[in-house]
Amino acid sequence: MVDLDTYLKHHPDALPRHEERRDNANEKLFERRPFPSTSTKIPGFSLNPADIFQTYPQPSGKKISDSQAMITTPYVYGFAFMRKIWGEFSVDDVEDIDWDQSCFEKLALQSDIKDILQRLVHLHEDSRRGFEDIVSRKGVGRAILLHGPPGSGKTLTAETIAERVQKPLYCVTSGELGTDVTKAEKNLEQIFELAQTWKAVLLIDEADVFLAKRTGMEMERNAFVSIFLRKLEYYQGIMILTTNRHEDFDEAFESRIHLAIHYDIPDTQQRIIIWRNLLNKFQNQYFDDEMIRRLAERYETNGRAINNLFSTALALVGSGAAVKEEDIERLYNMQWAKRRTLPT
């Protein structure tokens, strides 16, 4: 996410400073910084370089002039979602996002559930303008809970929703917040702020630590749960939480969740969709409908295990070779011959 303003907000030391030299009151000494602030002018230039970042038009395909190039920088500043770090990025490596809206349609999930999910996220902006709780800024956000066994498609659902509505996906886990309550609250505030600023779909993956029932013995964890509950109530964006342990939820979460969806191990029809979507990614891999049905019926497992099974078979047959049904069967028998189903 390229965002100079937010970068400066979180890195105030990146702003340039100037000090008067004692031996010459009229001479300014500029300290080297990544870029000047919007309030600082460089002698000899009529245009402040920081303004370029804030007013730069949408790409038109036209090359900039040499004069313009002299006052621009080969880097832009922003946030890397995958690595969770701020940094500078080469302009040559920055490009518009190529959203894949079709991936949501391919999701092996009931059509009515997909429709509800899509509507809830799409209508979020309208609901922000048209509805608030009695207390200002409460009840504006949308919290969606996806619960079920591992590998059943919870995280994939969040990823495809973000693609469908063309919003960035900001994924965090409880481990990234830390164990100290004070630090965790500060980290949580920053994550919520960034997600709202960028209108991102916020995914709290494996949110068991946030949702677990409070007890009288674990005061620090109880405080952490209480903090998360309060932050959740005032959060104004789209938040998706995933967990494997719905039965351990604190009761206070029930009134704060707008939609809860339970995931099971995919049935035969859903596994057919998973196999077909997987095979469509490879031009040299062709399984007819009957073969796909046999695979779906034979291996009663989740989407993650199917993907692992096929990718391993693909690696074993070698580059460019076609995977055959017997390759998958042989690999399955090697690893899970004594099990009725693959691990979940």
UniProtKB/TrEMBL annotation:
Q: Which residue numbers delimit the AAA+ ATPase domain?
A: 140-267
Reading the lineage from the top rank, the first entry is Eukaryota
Q: Where is this region: Disordered?
A: 13-43
Single Gene Ontology MF annotation: ATP hydrolysis activity
Q: Which Pfam families match?
A: AAA
Q: Where is the composition biased (Basic and acidic residues)?
A: 13-34
Q: Which SUPFAM superfamilies does this UniProt record tie to the protein?
A: P-loop containing nucleoside triphosphate hydrolases
Return the InterPro entries for the record.
Answer: AAA+_ATPase, ATPase_AAA_core, P-loop_NTPase
PANTHER family, A to Z: AAA+ ATPASE DOMAIN-CONTAINING PROTEIN, FAMILY ATPASE, PUTATIVE-RELATED
Q: What is this protein called?
A: AAA+ ATPase domain-containing protein
Cite the source lineage. Eukaryota, Fungi, Dikarya, Ascomycota, Pezizomycotina
